[in-house]
């Protein structure tokens, strides 16, 4: 049977996947804030597995979730979850056991303003944002004890209201307590995800894992935008841009080390190797958003490198230059499209 040869009439995964987990996969309520690429993908799969998933959404996405639910489609299988519990008012949805906070970084402050009704005494909030600052932003509002810093490993995009398409493998989520450890609530959520067939990453150090992804995606995204849209394939094959990528990765690596992040010494080499394995036509959301004149995660990616390097007292001249070029471009285009 091929991955997409059978479609369930009701909620459910279309092809078989791994089940099981570390904890009892029943009885937890999960709010997904932002039903886009990551939120739609994770929430759709959890809902398709029959879990109590509630979506804080808006606009045409909200209407589609209520009317027809979510379809998650991709190379390794499809999942469908019919009409879902969704609202643009968090009071309709909470409190819940877990919040998967899946908005892009520029939308974090208003999303955090809306979080209170979702958060009860034992609620854990999982972050999925690229970059390394989102957990601290959530903790500044709710306290560190509520935050599970997380890392999404997926390439997923909303292709229509209520439909998310992923590329490559079907995706994975990693998260941990603030101190990097596991706990009952971490085991329980792992169990829920695994029961829904979602791979769970268990990095030895969630902060090092976040930084390892950060040092890969930011140089690729920033250079992709600064070059007017060069793909990963183009950037890595031209000797000049390849050198810049490696320099950028090293700037972020040295910054992380100076800030006490336990990145392994081979982290930049690992990032280069991962980049070399990416499909040649890959681009990042950062460059796509900047070049389309949309609000982007520029401040959480390129901006954060400059900010954190400054805090660490480390030079980051390549990122400073890229930041200035892109900030100028953004100031001339965002809001005009
Ligand atoms: N997509 C991917 O493959 C990956 C993304 N990430 C990270 O995950 C985060 C989310 O990215 P992604 O899923 O791509 O983003 P998307 O833009 O696809 O999805 C975000 C969703 O959140 C909605 N939203 C924003 N604010 C609110 C709000 N206040 N209330 C309700 N809904 C809201 C948006 O609605 P609207 O469209 O109306 O603005 C949108 O549907 C980013 O930080 C990204 O870096 C990490 C790994 C992979
Ligand atoms: C680069 C990628 C696909 C990595 O997961 C990503 O998260 C993004 O483009 O926003």
Automatic annotation (TrEMBL):
InterPro entries: 6-PGluconate_DH-like_C_sf, 6PGD_dom2, ApbA, KPA_reductase, KPR-Related, KPR_N, NAD(P)-bd_dom_sf
Pathway of action: Cofactor biosynthesis; (R)-pantothenate biosynthesis; (R)-pantoate from 3-methyl-2-oxobutanoate: step 2/2
Gene3D superfamilies, sorted: N-(1-d-carboxylethyl)-l-norvaline Dehydrogenase, domain 2, NAD(P)-binding Rossmann-like Domain
Uppermost EC category: oxidoreductase
GO molecular function: 2-dehydropantoate 2-reductase activity
Keywords: NADP, Oxidoreductase, Pantothenate biosynthesis
Catalysed conversion reaction: (R)-pantoate + NADP(+) = 2-dehydropantoate + NADPH + H(+)
Domain Ketopantoate reductase C-terminal: 205-327
UniProt KW Nucleotide-binding keyword: no
Region (Disordered), start-end ranges: 1-21
Ranges of compositional bias, category Low complexity: 8-17
Transmembrane intervals: none
Entry EC no(s): 1.1.1.169
Family of this protein: Belongs to the ketopantoate reductase family.
Function noted in UniProt: Catalyzes the NADPH-dependent reduction of ketopantoate into pantoic acid.
UniProt-recorded name of the protein: 2-dehydropantoate 2-reductase
Organism: Micromonospora humida
């Amino acid at each position: 049977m091929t991955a997409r040869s059978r479609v369930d009439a009701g909620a459910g995964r279309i092809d078989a996947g791994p089940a099981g987990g570390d904890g009892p996969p029943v009885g937890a309520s999960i709010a997904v804030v932002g039903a886009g690429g990551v939120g739609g993908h994770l929430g759709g799969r959890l809902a398709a597995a029959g879990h109590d998933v509630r979506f804080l959404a808006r606009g045409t996405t909200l209407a589609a979730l209520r009317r027809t639910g979510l379809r998650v489609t991709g190379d390794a299988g499809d999942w469908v979850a019919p009409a879902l519990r969704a609202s643009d008012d968090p009071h309709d949805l909470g409190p819940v056991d877990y919040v998967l906070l899946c908005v892009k970084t520029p939308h974090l402050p208003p999303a955090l303003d809306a979080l209170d009704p979702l958060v009860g005494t034992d609620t854990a909030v999982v972050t999925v944002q690229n970059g390394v600052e989102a957990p601290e932003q959530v903790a500044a509002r709710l306290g560190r004890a509520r935050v599970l810093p997380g890392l999404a490993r997926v390439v997923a995009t909303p292709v229509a209201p209520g439909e998310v398409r992923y590329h490559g493998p079907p995706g994975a989520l990693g998260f941990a307590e603030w101190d990097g450890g596991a706990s009952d609530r971490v085991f329980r959520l792992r169990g829920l995800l695994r029961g829904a067939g979602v791979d769970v990453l268990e990095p030895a150090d969630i902060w090092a894992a976040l930084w390892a992804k950060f040092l890969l995606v930011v140089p690729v995204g920033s250079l992709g935008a600064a070059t007017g849209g060069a793909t990963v394939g183009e950037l890595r094959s031209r000797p000049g841009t390849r050198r810049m990528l490696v320099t950028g990765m090293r700037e972020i690596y040295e910054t992380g080390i100076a800030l006490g992040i336990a990145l392994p010494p081979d982290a930049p080499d690992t990032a280069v190797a991962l980049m070399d394995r990416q499909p040649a036509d890959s681009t990042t959301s950062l460059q796509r958003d900047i070049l389309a004149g949309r609000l982007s995660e520029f401040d959480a990616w390129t901006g954060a490198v400059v900010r954190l390097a400054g805090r660490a007292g480390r030079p980051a001249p390549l990122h400073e230059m890229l930041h200035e070029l892109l900030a100028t471009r953004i100031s001339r285009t965002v809001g005009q499209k």
